[in-house]
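Run folding on both entries below.
>entry_1
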Amino acid sequence: MTGGPGHDLVLGIDIGGTKTAVAAVDRDGRTYATRVAPTPAAEGAAAILEVAARLADEVRHDVGGSVSAAGVGAPGVVDARRGVVVSATDLLRGWAGTPIVDLLSQRLCLPVAVDNDVRAAGLGEARYGAGRTAGFAVVVAVGTGIGAAVIREGVLLPGSCGVAGHLGHIPVPGTGDDLCSCGRSDHLEAAAAGPAILRAAHRAGLAATTTIEVMALAETDPQAAAVVTNAATVLGRALGGVVNLLDPDAIVVGGGVAEAGGVWWRPLRAAFDAELLPPAAPALVPATLGTQAGVIGAATMARDLVNGRNPR
């Protein structure tokens, strides 16, 4: 953001499989002095956290050092109460078991809050983005994987073990031999995430090399359109099921796949609407914070920690 930062800043740290972003964020969700660097995913937890800490130091320098806490969005199943990564895939080497809060709070000399990266981004959308007018929202990210955050009255609900929101791992039929990133079969992620769309396109004989190319082809190519429609329909039905279970005010959908446009959104909405039990009629809307959702949401957790708003 242009212009100088005000007072009452916190840090938002968004650790991803390929990049780590850090920004200072004010109480209105505005970001300052954003820094981004590649995540050293193959070098282990210590190297990953050191990159995050170095970026945090640079951001603090840029804003005059006036930050009161840091929040972290991290991949994996995260125990937010203990500040530890409980389990994780091999995306980040040696990530499972990492005590993020203990290590970063010592390194930064700041109070630190942590949660799963998708839940953190969802909290940002619920407080400052497309879900800000909803009392009860489910924020969904559809990209390389599929995840979600459940937020009620501005409070993130992580579940009893920190697993809540792993939408991509709910069972759906018909994924064939395609396995989910967790290694199991017949999961939503294996049918509707970006890599699943690309795999289906290859089986259909399409020469696309990225999911974005498949989406572009779907505007004119019937085979590509069928691939995209199938993935969007499976996801739309699953989201309708989420509504029938939780009855939220809004479903907010973001992530790289959700940027596809009408070729994806039309079948998604049609399948979603067809699954709803009357009188349920929640809003199904695109996310608005884009790539800033992660740092804004992580910073929101930090601000809650400082303000004593930590009901989990």
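>entry_2
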Amino acid sequence: MRFIKKKTNKSVEVEVWEDEREFEKVEVYESTFTMDNVEQPLRFVKFAMKHKDKRRSQVMIVTTCMEMTLKSLFKIIRSRWDIENSIFNNLKNECGLEHCFVHGGKAVEAVLYLIFIASNILQLFRLRRLKKHIKSQREMVRLLLKGLYQLKYQAELVLSSA
């Protein structure tokens, strides 16, 4: 990996994108290589991004997919980064997942599924039912309880998209 990284860093960029969403400039470097015990050739792609506030960052990926365009790879990796930052960070900070109090693969998996489901239901509730921004978590919980109370007596709200 070190060798291919050095080789790619010394190469000329394959593509350069100007004014790409929140970036001033994105330079893309690409090369292919093989590894022991891996049947397919691997594709190493480095995205060097210059943000509009002059900060710089880079993302490097290794994939076996040779046909996908560089723009598609960039969109996928940015989406995965958003998932990492928003969902997992939210689970860790707001759902008390810093330490899992159960042991064993199946128990941990069950707890994670429950937390994912609860988080998704809460986000869906925020998106579908709340028209204005919530001032506090207490207000959000009050509205969630109100919605659950209404669901008890108005079953047609369950499948309503309004």
